[in-house]
Write a structure and sequence with these properties.
The complex is a heterodimer. By secondary structure, chain A is mostly helical. Chain A has 2 domains: 121 residues, no CATH class; 160 residues, no CATH class. Chain A has 14 helices and no strands. In chain B, a hairpin with a 2-residue loop joins strand 1 and strand 2. The longest helix of chain B is centred in the last third of the chain and has 31 residues. The chains are: A mainly alpha, B mainly alpha. At the A-B interface, helix 4 of A face helix 8 of B.
């Protein structure tokens, strides 16, 4: 029997935009980042991805059962939450990090508010914030670095400090040292920023893979491009302005393309449920996430701040909706 | 006076039907702030129960003298007296605990559980009924704090009353549970649980 689609008006435009299809497109868009993470972190990445996706789906089913609702597994949103959570975790996190992260993401992040579409905060980031605060020793910036002899590591990348930890350490050094550590020709900078693979959370390994997936989402008119552009612009501009080196543009590019900013701008901050719904509100939202990210990076003890920035701006979404209500045509 | 609840009714009422934490949601400040381990939670509950008992009896004895427009002032002054007693007592005999509880002992003065019991019970009923009411509410408050502290201390430190329950080899403690967010999470989950049980019981 053919499935009957029920949707709210207007019925003429975008009749194919079901939740299931949107979520499926996000999964496709995440595939390049997933592939790179598997290539770089090998079986460790597979482990995080498998635990997150499977436990997110299991908890989605379980909480639907507890609430006495129809199972919502087939809308694919649990898979997306699991993938985003896994891609924001360090490669060497023990099993309880992805498992309890998924429990909190689905349970506290989504189910207690009434399920998908009702949640105030991005579920994957709620789960990540929980494990970040609970298991600081295995989630902090230094935990990403392979502990042991460099020769024993399965990949040279995991023996490096993450770029954000390097930038944080650089903050204490002099302007000359910072300038000397930044390559001076455009080609090598771009190579370092986008094509190069570096240590970090699973999804952050390659900027290029995130760009490919993110641009696919925007071309399919699925991503909130205003949030993405606003956030990237704010990070870049603040990165340039706060640079004390002799190459502020490169410094801004480093802040832009390293850490979770690219992944956050394309996949985390753009979650349609927790964004403002007005175009102006989305601009403010993206710019706010960018500014807060840089505030956390520059002034807090954490090397990275995308997660807390997204969560704080999520809580401001209703306010942004309220102050950016578009004027109806013809009204003063 | 015949329509007012008896002493036994008052006592039982405070434990479950009008449990200050899970039913009335009063006294949230100590509930959230000092429940990250059992010792602190039980000291807090004991101090609150003592103040509640003494001020209920005192208010009940002077209830005929109360002027309507001055009663809240009299309640607060009476409560403040006994809170000062508890505060100095703790500082003298349990110095470490007194330091750990910090400002939350003086804050018992503005704990709305006590003012509400003075207003609801002590200002209209005799000292014995008021004392039983204070004990019932005190037991209810203690059970509420102890339940939250049990969850938070076991999940957050792997211990209960400082004794190891979950050894670190099998359980990595959730540090968030002994931080403020853990209080809100635990209170929310337990509230949901008790509401669920109540709804189940009523539907039968």
């Amino acid at each position: 029997m053919e499935k009957l689609e029920v949707a709210s008006s207007p019925h003429l435009y975008r009749v194919h935009r079901s939740t299931r299809r949107m979520m499926f497109q996000v999964i496709i868009a995440l595939l390049p980042a997933v592939a790179v993470s598997l290539f770089v972190f090998k079986v460790h990445a597979l482990f995080q991805l498998a635990v997150c996706v499977l436990s997110c789906m299991a908890f989605e089913w379980l909480f639907a059962l507890i609430r006495g609702r129809r199972s919502t597994l087939e809308d694919n949103s649990a898979i997306v939450t699991g993938l985003i959570l896994a891609l924001s975790l360090p490669w060497n996190a023990p099993w309880y990090v992805p498992f309890f992260g998924s429990l909190i993401a689905i349970g506290v992040g989504k189910a207690v508010y009434g399920g998908l579409g009702q949640n105030i905060f991005n579920p994957a980031m709620v789960g990540r914030a929980f494990v970040m605060l609970s298991f600081a020793t295995v989630m902090g910036g230094n935990a990403y670095q392979f502990q042991g002899e460099a020769g024993e590591a399965f990949s040279g990348i995991v023996t490096q400090a993450t770029p954000m930890v390097q930038l944080k350490t650089l903050g204490a050094s002099s302007a000359e040292q910072i300038s000397a550590s930044i390559p001076q020709d455009t080609v090598s900078v771009l190579k370092m920023c986008f094509a190069g693979v570096h240590n970090g959370s699973l999804g952050e390994a390659s900027g290029l893979a995130i760009l490919i997936g993110g641009l696919y989402l925007i071309i399919r008119r699925n991503g909130g491009w205003r949030v993405t552009v606003g956030m990237l612009a704010a990070v870049f501009i603040i990165g340039c302005l706060t640079s004390v080196s002799n190459a502020p543009i490169y410094h801004g590019l480093l802040y832009l393309t390293n850490g979770a900013v690219l992944f956050g701008a394309f996949f985390i901050a753009t979650d349609p449920v927790t964004n403002p719904i007005t175009p102006a509100g989305r601009w403010y939202f993206g710019i706010g996430v960018g500014i807060l990210t840089m505030v956390f990076r520059l002034f807090s003890g954490y090397p990275e701040g995308v997660m807390f920035a997204v969560l704080i701006m999520n809580s401001l979404s209703p306010l942004l909706n309220h102050i950016t209500i578009p004027k109806p045509f013809g009204q003063e | 006076m015949s329509s007012l609840p008896t002493a036994v009714q008052r006592f039982i009422n405070g434990i479950i039907p009008e449990n200050p934490i899970y039913r009335l949601l009063l006294g949230m400040c100590p509930t959230l702030a000092v429940t990250n381990n059992m010792q602190a939670a039980l000291t807090m509950a004991g101090a609150t129960t003592f103040v509640l008992l003494c001020s209920n009896i005192m208010i009940s004895l002077i209830r005929k003298l109360l002027q309507p427009h001055l009663r809240i002032l009299v309640f607060t002054l009476t409560i403040a007296t006994f809170v000062t007693v508890v505060d100095r007592l703790l500082a003298a005999h349990m110095f470490e605990m007194s330091k750990q509880l910090g400002p939350y002992i003086p804050l018992i003065i503005v704990n709305c559980i006590i003012i509400s019991r003075c207003e609801v019970c002590a200002a209209v009923q005799g000292p014995f009924v008021s004392a039983m009411d204070a004990l019932g509410v005190g037991v209810g408050f203690t059970l509420g704090l102890a339940s939250i502290a049990t969850v938070r201390e076991i999940l957050g430190s792997g211990t209960w009353f400082g004794l190891t329950v979950l050894p670190p080899e099998v359980w990595t403690p959730w540090s968030i549970m002994i931080l403020p967010p853990g209080a809100f999470l635990t209170l929310g989950v337990l509230l949901a649980l008790f509401n669920f049980i109540q709804a189940r019981l009523e539907s039968k």
